[in-house]
Amino acid sequence: MPAKCALITGITGQDGSYLSEFLLAKGYEIHGMVRRVALEDPDHRLSRLRDIRSRLVLHAASLESYASIHRVIQDVQPDECYHLAAQSFVSYSFDDEFSTLNTNINGTHFLLAALKSLAPQCRFYFAGSSEMFGQAQEAPQHEGTRLHPRSSYGISKVAGFHLTRNYREAYGMHASSCILFNHESPRRGFEFVTRKISSGVARILAGASTELRLGNLEAKRDWGHAREYVEAMWLMLQQPQPDDYVVATGECHSVREFAELAFAHAGLDYRRYVKPDADLFRPAEVNLLKGDASKARRVLGWTCRTRFEDLVREMVEQDCRALEMAAKVR
Ligand code: NAP
Ligand code: F7E
Fold first, then answer.
1. Which domain holds residue 133?
2. Which ligand is nearest to the CA of 281?
């Protein structure tokens, strides 16, 4: 049987890199959609794909351009499409609502429309988010929990979620959404709080910094490991019927707890180094997210394996190692 062909948007990001490795191990032929600048500055922009770059076919396209997406779908004719690309930083979505909504909503719409006309049998995955629940009225949140997004990022994900459902219902496409709760790893972008903390600890330990400025320490999130969350994406597209699934650990911890553990792992007391910074609070915060992934467990057989403490430790250790390496190179 010929290898299945997958197209991944957002392949350069945290999840894109783990998903690529996962699908390569399953024998997939993998195509990735990247921005043109990524091909011009591969050392920096393709760094998460460094070890597998030669096994991927990359296509330059932009979420803002229907024509470029149409061309990639026509050339690739994928069996499965994993749509991960997005302006994914919630804080930034308050600074630029317009580009967040444009990129995230139009990008998803362009992709669905191009697939409908050029590859209607292709199975489609949309990366929904727990930010869609926002100010949730219940905890834990499940597939039926009312949506109340608190940022233009959350609103863009609600729109993408409904677009995906609508293409499924209106055109019979195999289009599914995951409602993913926060998932982290040593490959997380430095702007997100977990990586900001783990890299901050490493810098303080190396003497390169003396403090870490953070915003709301009391926000609570359901933090899992990204490597495990990409397995759920694949499992969803192997189901006979498309559907929507919450993917989460079911445990939640505050930013303060994350910082306390991360500093403690390096033998430091976070209270000496973490400095509150009012500028880092969001105009509208999401206070508590905790997911109920029982449907994913029951239907997909998906489970999470990494404990919170181990996730924190892995991130701190990797950042400390990376700084030691950098020091040796200098
Ligand atoms: P990430 O590391 O921020 O990666 C985002 C990807 O989107 C990157 O490859 C980025 O490309 C690409 N992208 C951004 N704007 C683009 C544009 N205008 N045109 C083309 N590509 C663009 O995000 P992630 O953590 O892997 O998350 C993957 C997806 O899951 C995102 O849709 C995110 O919103 C969603 N999600 C993530 C989480 C989480 O906790 N990680 C939870 C729920 C949902 P560049 O490298 O060129 O910037
Ligand atoms: O913030 C608080 C902040 O930026 C987590 C994205 O992957 O997950 C992610 O969105 C919490 C918030 O992630 C700082 O106020 C305190 O309450 O790491 P974050 P996020 O906003 O939860 C969801 C599910 C996605 O879909 C998104 O794409 O931490 N916080 N102090 C801080 N956050 C940041 N970034 N920086 C701080 O200094």
1. 5-183+223-247
2. 2
